[in-house]
Amino acid sequence: MNPMYGAEWLDTAAGIVLVVVLWRFCRRSGMVGSQGLFALASLLFLIGMSPWMDQYARHSLWLHSWQSVLIHHMAPLLWMAALHPVCARQPFCSAGKSSSLGTRATQSDRLLMVLLLLFTLLTWGWMLPALHPLLMASAALYALMKWLMALSGVSLCFVVFFSRPHNHRWISFTVIVPMLLMGITLMLARDLFSGYHTPLTATLPLPELLSTGFSLPVSVDQRLAGFIFLISALIYWAGEQITGLARLAPPARVAVGVSPNKRRYS
After folding, report:
1. CA 266, CA 264: separation in Å to the nearest integer?
2. DSSP for residue 193
3. 3-state class of 251 per DSSP?
4. Distance CA 126, CA 135 (A)
5. Where exactly are the structural domains of the chain?
6. Is pTM, for the whole model, over 0.90?
7. How many angstroms separate the CA atoms of 71 and 45, rounded?
8. How far apart are the first and last CA of the chain?
9. For a designed S-S bond to 48, which of 30, 71, 117, 144 qualifies (C-beta 3.0 to 4.6 A apart)?
10. Within a 10 A sphere around the Cβ of 247, how many other Cβ atoms?
């Protein structure tokens, strides 16, 4: 068997195993609220993680951007929407005694800061002109970066549900704003990638119908990638509003003695 062909199947198997493990953990923990949304998120995740897509995305800015937001933002958003909302207000809702929740929430807050920093760096990292050529030239480095983004997205799902409610607005800000800035930069900046951009059709054989869609000038390719980031940021924000993730944080804290129904829980 061709080593590269075997590596592609190994990559695919690893993605399937990750989805199965995630499903079994959430199911046993009583966190799954919508099986349909969970299945849809898993399907989109596996499509984005396909190693056969990598070989095309490495030579197409817009396809690379689409793959990035799919595994790093859209699939995690749908997974969060699929999980039971009770877990969002009660960290580790089915994991142990309530006396340990405070300690676990504090640990989760610390992990959250690290993950949010990593999440932002990964959103920008492999689109920076200084790093992009290196990451696109190597199939191994591209796969490594893809998996780092996938794992950070999955980790963020759990940290969102296991962190204190007042952190959710910061999470939303940290996820959406880098996408918006990246989209605006790619849309407005001059050709950032023209120095090394290799048309996909010059690298891989494609059917005539697909060749037209992939043989784009670098300026058009870059702006289309920026448009994908902008639309994805808006979709992510709208998804939060629809699923209620943005409304998980309770209202402002009130003075002691006020009715329990009006108190802020943290």
Report:
1. 6
2. S
3. coil
4. 7
5. 3-88+111-195+212-246
6. no
7. 5
8. 55
9. 71
10. 10
For helices 3-28 and 139-162, give the axis angle rounded to 10 degrees: 0
What is d(CA 52, CA 87) in angstroms, rounded to the nearest whole number? 36
What is the C-alpha separation between 48 and 51, in angstroms, rounded?
A: 9
Scan for tokens 């849309």, then name that residue.
187
Residues 6+ apart with CB under 8 A from 133: 196
Q: Can you give the pLDDT at residue 132?
A: 77
11-34 pLDDT tens trace:
889 999 999 998 888 888 777 788
Q: Which two tokens stand for residue 76?
A: 């995690």
Comparing 48 with 119, the larger pLDDT belongs to: 48
In sequence order, the 6+-apart residues with CB closer than 8 A to the CB of 236 are: 73, 74, 77, 175, 176, 179
Cβ-contact 119, 156 below 8 angstroms: yes
Residues 40, 265: Cα–Cα separation, whole Å: 32
With tokens 């209620």, the residue in question is 244
Q: Which of 168, 144, 178 is CA-nearest to residue 85?
A: 168
Q: Which of 93, 73, 264, 260 is nearest to 176 (CA)?
A: 73
DSSP 8-class letter at 74: I
Contact status, residue 221 vs residue 59, Cβ threshold 8 Å: no
Residue with structure tokens 């207000």? 89
Residue with the two structure tokens 């909302």: 85
